[in-house]
Known about the structure:
- By secondary structure, this protein is an alpha/beta fold.
- The longest helix has 18 residues, at 233-250.
- Strand 4 (109-115), helix 4 (123-133) and strand 5 form a beta-alpha-beta unit.
- The chain has helices at 13-22, 28-39, 77-86, 123-133, 158-166, 177-180, 211-219, 222-231, 233-250, and strands spanning 48-52, 69-74, 92-96, 109-115, 134-143, 151-152, 155-156.
- It has one domain (13-250): Vaccinia Virus protein VP39 (Rossmann fold), CATH 3.40.50.150.
- Helix 1 packs across helix 7 (211-219).
- It has a five-stranded parallel sheet. Strands 6-7 form a two-stranded antiparallel sheet.
- 37% of the residues lie in helices and 15% in strands.
Amino acid sequence: xxxxxxxxxxxxxxxxxxxxxxxxxxxxxxxxxxxxxxxxxxxxxxxxxxxxxxxxxxxxxxxxxxxxxxxxxxxxxxxxxxxxxxxxxxxxxxxxxxxxxxxxxxxxxxxxxxxxxxxxxxxxxxxxxxxxxxxxxxxxxxxxxxxxxxxxxxxxxxxxxxxxxxxxxxxxxxxxxxxxxxxxxxxxxxxxxxxxxxxxxxxxxxxxxxxxxxxxxxxxxxxxxxxxxxxxxxxxxxxxxxxxxxxxxxx
Length: 251
């Protein structure tokens, strides 16, 4: 069993804004790799992509040039409203709904995607829904990222990120372990499953960022939100201050 859809950790309005501003958008070559795989199994033109756990729409919008229609689904009303407000594509619709009961017709989609979200779902029910929604030969593509690696003056500071993340170990849900294995520990959806690793550096996102950008990113972590909710604002502020100090001492 996975985390239940009633866990509304990302429904807070402030967190929704942080999520949109600081969470990375998947790289274009990852999206094109997924689409090429879909094209091997489906007849063009591709009609429908469904993005589950769409959040504020970063992943959803990446598929607009490949499909006649894209539907983003998220349990958070706040996320759906922000995604709709910021969307400039005519062929995208955002809907409030849960992964275990998708607001999508039977056998209507060539592709179902989920970016940094599947570890929150009840997998048994989600996989049944994906089977219902996909056309014959349809594809389920799920992906995440290993986290950010600050590089300053040519030196990697990945160990600093691990140290800061370790400060929140008690607040990460059990399902978070799947992220560290690049979803390799998830039950297979199909015997034709293919896996790509971020460790070969084929799929990367690079951006120029400040220390404040980094602090904004970690402020969007589910574990940080849990820390704030359980321990209070003072504890959350101390964590951010300690993280900032570690960053200042490192780069």
